[in-house]
Amino acid sequence: MDPTPLTFAPILKPKVWGGRRLAGYGKELGPMEAVGESWELADLPDSIEDGRSIVDRGPLAGKTLHALLMDDPSWIMGRVPLSPEGGFPLLIKYLDARENLSMQVHPDAAWVRDHPEDHLKTESWLVLEADEHALLYKGIREGVEPDAFARAIEDGSIVNLVETVPAQVGECHDLPSGTCHALGAGILVAEIQTPSDTTFRVFDWGRTDRTLHVEQAMQCIAFEPAAPMMKPHRLQDNSMQTTLLSRTSHYVIERIDAITDHTITLAPQDAPEVLMVLSGTGTLGTTEAIPLEAGRTILLPAALDSIEARLDANASMLRITIPESV
Predict the structure, then answer these.
(1) Could you give the residue numbers annotated as active site?
(2) Domains in the chain, please, with CATH?
(3) Is this model's pTM higher than 0.70 or not?
(4) For 216-244, how does the pLDDT look when each residue is reduced to its tens digit (9 = 90+)?
């Protein structure tokens, strides 16, 4: 068959800290009151429950992304290798934090060398909505030693030792493995990350029904402030603005904002690309065009010919690409 854009059924994840804001991004939440995550594009191992996306339209509807990759990865991946676990190398989500997420860390390189069942995880948060005074927690304050941090976990004062950043809509925060972090209450983000679900919790805001992993976390935390945010780089003409938000060794994130009605030609360069529509409307392609609307996530396979995305005025979307060095 000819390469075609792929869309997937969202995988909704109930969380104790979740809310209902994802309904505004096209997610059918039904009776669930606390939906924390919508996995838009996922291909995690079998051991992760509901961790593999299913195509929801077109001739491939009903197939998992993983099955397509196992059948023939070349038309989807091009020059990009599969993850070390044999899956798609990115995990794309929305997160809705009605309450604070746990203070946590993902394994660092030293830990992963000794524990091959665990995986590095670099992630980036783009803030889409934030209540007044909402905070992000990331990195350890200057001068905090591990012993003092361990004592603060025990007496609950750990929050005073983690740096806080006001949540500002439009800002993108990169969180490499080893960064102690938490998404604060009242924030909704788009999250782009490497495909790992290995998380070590060090503090859970008084909740007692979830496991903490203090010993593992203390071996992985980088006891230093988080790296400063990348300064956004903007290119603008009369009808469109493109902003480079993040560049890591795993992915590059750009935001495309239509100022007036605008058509952009997308041409994957022998590598898959992911589009996340954040707001507004439009269409992708001409024959059997895919409607573009808030919450729609689309995978453009590497072998896809150029395709046009028509964005109506004030529409916004993310374009996530994989750098040549991968």
Answers:
(1) 201
(2) 6-220 (2.60.120.10), 233-321 (2.60.120.10)
(3) yes
(4) 999 999 999 998 899 999 998 889 999 99
